[in-house]
Predict the structure.
Amino acid sequence: MQPAPSSLTPSGTTAERGFKKAILRLVKGGPERLAIEAGQIDAIIDPTSGHAILLPDAQRALIERKVGFRSLIGLAFDWYWEQDERYCFVSHQGATDEAIGFTEEGVIGKALWDLSIDNLSETDWQTHRQQLEWRVIFRDLEVRCVDRAGEMRYVSISGEPIFDAQNQFKGYRGITRDITARKHSEAVVRESNRYARTILDGLGAAIAVLDQAGVVLSVNPAWHALAITHSSIADVACGSNYLTGCDNAGDDEHEDGMAIAAGIRQVIAGERSLFRYDYAADSPAGRLWIALSIAGTAGNNAARAIVSCEDITERKRGELLLDLERTVLRCLTDADTATVALKSVIRAVCESQGWTCGRYFSLDQSAGVLRFSESWGIPAAAVEQFIEKSRGLVFRPGAGLAGRVCQSGQPLWVIDGTRDAGVAPTALAPETGDEGAFVFPVTSEDTIIGVLAFSNPIIREPDDRTLQVVRSIGSHLGRFLRRQEAVDSLRRSESRFRALTDLTSDWYWEQNRDCRFTQIADGNPFGGADILGMTHWDLPGVVLADATWPEHKSNLAARWSFHDFEFATVQADGQCSYYSICGEPVYDESGIFSGYRGTGLDITRRKCAEIALRESEGAEVNPDDPAFAAAVRVARRALAERIADRVRKEYRPVNNDDGQPDLNGQASAKFGELLRALEFDRATDLRIAAAIELIGKTK
Amino acid sequence: MARKKAKRVTSDADATTVVVMVLYITESGPNSVRAIANIEAICQEHLKDNFRLEIVDVLESPRRALADGVVVTPSLAKVSPLPAATVVGNLSDTGEVLRALGIRG
């Protein structure tokens, strides 16, 4: 229990004693009097007036309480005011009235709208007056005025109606607070926000601001513009949840959505300050690429992450086209045939552009038509059928897309099988399969040698860069095909030459500028010895006594060609071998002599026969002599070889229908006669000798 | 000002008597403040939840006090159960209060 204070004690002042007597007169009951005496009473109710009379302690407590209350109220507002029934101020009091334009002497007798307030329009005042007429409480009416120092001040005014005991309206009373500092702060914040907003709106990159939960707080105009063409961000708007959108991304975008959501959450959680992610999305305009950048932000506001989106489609397409050019060049470098090159190039283009298949139609110059040549397509039944149907296609210049491209030399495209530059869709079906198509020429030295035609359900309208790249590809491919044709032709020619060389010689040789062997092909005729680095006159056992060597060396020094230079070597068994060589000087690209090359023929058997015949001419001929018969056989064989050799060298053989050689020229009759003589009268030695003599004369 | 503190166990209303009281005070008066504290302590200790206390500020409702025959504050009036009783002062005499309320201390 709390102790009772001593109050109205007998030891009080005279005034207090008088007050006590008056009080006690009002109280008749004994307990009440005792309680008053004990100081346990706060108030006495005058039965006459019905008013409560506070005793001194209670009165002091009430006063202290009111003072404290006023002090607290003073903290809540700067001025207290009252208005009469005509809304004119009758009082306006405050602790700092000198600091504001609303001084008591300045406002007494005036209504609020009579004061120098410049931020409210007539409509605003009408609205306010209507509130007053309705006797409603108004709060935080913010007005602007100029104080005595000429400074702009802002005050907030709130008021409530006053009614008397008879519920008669007596006016308004209320408070006024100086909110200048707050307004200035708000202006600073507003200006800061406006500045930030201006920057945000002015940015070319699309920006979205997210809060802690991933909810979009704001987006800039660039975001709205980007959302028109990019379905992946079309649903992102103020109030939507970016993270939820990422989490619920569709099948094709699920992986990207999960990665982006994870990155955003890491940034919001402060685990990383920046997250970057590039992703692609399909759209009616083709594949689009977006570079996403999420940066964390920390401050007093709700923003926690800044999402920046940039359309990098052009850059990505440029990179893809650059990669495509490099890939095509690599394909052409690696290819060793036209077929391999065409397939690899078509495949590279299809994979780069996401097209289903491509076909090459080569221009048959002689027939003047385009014929299907090569193709590549994705492994799909429809594509394979489409290519299969294309195999017999032939286009005349000007007919169909391929023909038109061949005729004009300019690329053509069909967006989706129904829209192109003037060709009826039905006419395109064989070419495009009712799909989009892109056709461009393959050229070599400004001459069209074929056409590449690609198909896909939808072909994006090519930009300048794409057209530039396809022209480049067409040109590179055309040059390769032309070069390959030349290489093939040369290869066939070399093959024919090799075959002829194999018929007319036993080996092929090359020498350096010192006439030393650098290569021996098709066998080593000189006993298997290693002769590289030797000259012909260095060969093992070479017979240098022959007077023809100096003349031969002189010819070599003069860089002359030589034919049928014959020389002999002595083998280990003492037998002689005879050789006939032909050669020509070789010059490099600068025209500098680099050596000789030529062919060689082993003529040992022929020479032996000749020697035997010459030796037999000096002796008596006995047809029955076995030695003579053997010599005749050797001579006959040598003669046949000699004739055949001469025929191959000097007369162009043409095969008749029966496969027998037909000898042209003036000597054909003589050689034909000789051959017939050999065939029908081989035993006649005189004829053989005559033939040998004739051969000697014709040499 | 009239404040009511209505606390009772309704589930056992028949078995337990609810004491209804009115405390007349003068707000912010030191004896009134003490009277409020004292009666709340007594109720908490002896009546648990079986009481209903109304507090009347005579500065706001002087006629109510006159009508109820109250001439000084603080005064505690026991309304029910009968017989009615009144205690004046700051209720610092707990025994007197308990006797007025019919509770044996």
Remarks:
- Chain A has five domains: 14-68, 77-185, 203-311, 318-480, 502-698.
- Residues 203-311 of chain A form a domain with the Beta-Lactamase fold (CATH 3.30.450.20).
- The longest helix of chain A spans residues 464-504.
